[in-house]
Amino acid sequence: MNLGSPIGQSESPSICCSGAAVDGSNNSRKCALPAGTDLNVYFNKFVSGEGLDDQYLTNAQPLEVGDFDPATGEPKTNSTVISKLRAIGEELCASGRVRRGGAFGPFDGEPYGNLAPEDSQPEKINSLVDSIYDSGTSNNATVGFSVFSEGFRWNHHVYCDGE
Q1: Residues 87 and 111 in one domain
Q2: Domain limits at 119?
Q3: How buried is 76 (Cβ within 10 angstroms: 0-12 exposed, 13-18 middle, 19+ buried)?
Q4: Which of 22, 104, 105, 115 could form a disulfide linkage to 94, CB 3.0–4.6 angstroms apart?
């Protein structure tokens, strides 16, 4: 069953293409995306055509053919497409929440950054996660080692947040 498809209360979520379902209103259930799903990968036009279909979308605007890189099928990374992915995710993710990845952010330079005394900490630099101590915020999202190790990798991707 496609994302958003209604399924019966007694039916297993395994009948959904995503393998997950969420309880809805009026004792109903619908197919959904599990936590950690990378929407940029799932909705790649060579992986799934579901982002182009608005059959089960109530508020979100579906992706259009021009929203994809023609060579790779990946959704483009412009603000319009990211906004569409966020809205689709808020409707189709089991948690109803989305987040961005955390590979890049304002972290201490390594190896010096976390070994220096507190009063001599150098200014943070925008870099790739390279230490278990890397953490911070970028564009109002938590980034760093813990986010990256939870599977929310790339800052330009949108993911279904945890439950």
Answers
A1: no
A2: 100-158
A3: middle
A4: 22
Do 55 and 92 meet the contact criterion of CB atoms below 8 Å apart?
no
Q: Which of 117, 78, 23, 149 is CA-nearest to residue 6?
A: 23
3-state helix, strand, coil in the chain (%, to 5): 20, 25, 55
User: Do 89 and 104 fall into the same domain?
Assistant: no
DSSP states along 50-110: GGG--TT-SSSPPP-GGGB-TTT-PBP-SHHHHHHHHHHHHHHBTTS-EEE--SEEEE--T
Q: Which of 81-85, 108-112, 113-117, 120-124 has the lowest mean pLDDT?
A: 113-117
55, 74, 96: which is the final residue of a domain?
A: 96
Give the model confidence (pLDDT) of 39-94 as tens digits. Answer: 999 999 899 878 787 888 888 899 999 999 999 999 999 999 999 999 999 999 99
Residue 116 scores a pLDDT above 60: no
- Give me the number of domains the chain comprises: 2
